């Protein structure tokens, strides 16, 4: 009996060890296969986009071309979701106002809503007038150029996401169209005055975004944080700040986000914004008063008051981004569809609803599968954000676009948002240095920091700063060069 018991025990131990090995093997398999889940779903989506194009077009002479273009458009949309949307959601996540899951859910809903409700119905010029279509010669040449532009832009944004650099997807498309245009018809095909404006926006966008964000952070510090009674000051100033945010976003959405539903001029948009801002200010006075009851007189308590406005601003930024940037991404695809069907490539291009669906769903999948990397980078790895700082970044994005539209300046929402993060970080460095000097003037015996310690205490990571700036500068030329190579490859293959 004893022998049988000991035998059973040994068998059980052996079984336990085998089960443990199997369990470990299963966990290892899951771990190894996990990195392939995202690419696998992405490939499936790209294939489905091609099938969707086939379903809508049926069998025509150029069906294969449109199916391939739809797949490339889906690939581009995935990359927009992985890279561009991080600029809207990063600050809110970095400030802990939103969880990663909550940010992705809000972005998916509002990006898709912006694309499908207020997305562009017409692309009057290809990629904002970078090339003159009539210079492209034949319809086939135009189609190959747009296909090369789409693929090169998608590849460049994919690479930027891989190295952790938020870049402008619109600039990537612009570079792709420019490179293919030059390869197809020479330098005369490019509208260089438009390119000059885009080059100027490389400098204008981040500087404007940074200055506006730093200005609002200075206002919050001066009027709330550095006051003896922080809670009382917050009750007075937070409703005003929320009113300014509401005014900026109402004007922004009226001017940019719903421009395809109804045309609104600048003056009307500003009046809509002013009215919305006043109403929001009056509504928020009792709300903030109730929220602030029982809060301690310290900086940590102030974060509660900025949480909801920050979440709302992230949602509104996503809606406006979906309404504007999706059309830019699928513009070349819409051009290919129209030219393939009609042969006309010199007039405005209507964007079919199925093309917008590819763009909207592609952004959602790209954000869900690959977006967290860039969201974490923008939200916490450039500089440390809290709700007040993140709020300044979101407010800066809306106000800067309004100002730029009024001045007629071409700007990038990506550059504005990331510039706002840089502006907040560099302002904090300047403010910390100023306060140290002020303290040293009243306390001469206070020890000073050496050069190494001063570098260590920098509040903006210089490595991220240099990587992002470099990626911004080379986006258009890199996409253009890649597009030209792809165009020559396509024409050599089909010719």
Automatic annotation (TrEMBL):
GO terms for biological process: phosphate ion transmembrane transport. InterPro entries: Phos_transporter (IPR001204). Pfam families: PHO4. GO terms for cellular component: membrane. Keywords: Membrane, Phosphate transport, Transmembrane, Transmembrane helix, Transport. Its main location: membrane. GO terms for molecular function: phosphate transmembrane transporter activity. It is found in: Membrane. It is a multi-pass membrane protein. The chain crosses the membrane at residues 36-57, 64-82, 142-165, 172-192, 198-220, 236-255, 261-283, 304-323, 351-370, 390-407, 413-430, 465-490. Signal peptide: none annotated. Belongs to the inorganic phosphate transporter (PiT) (TC 2.A.20) family. PANTHER family: PHOSPHATE TRANSPORTER (PTHR11101:SF80). This is Phosphate transporter. It comes from Yoonia ponticola. The lineage of its organism: Bacteria, Pseudomonadati, Pseudomonadota, Alphaproteobacteria, Rhodobacterales.
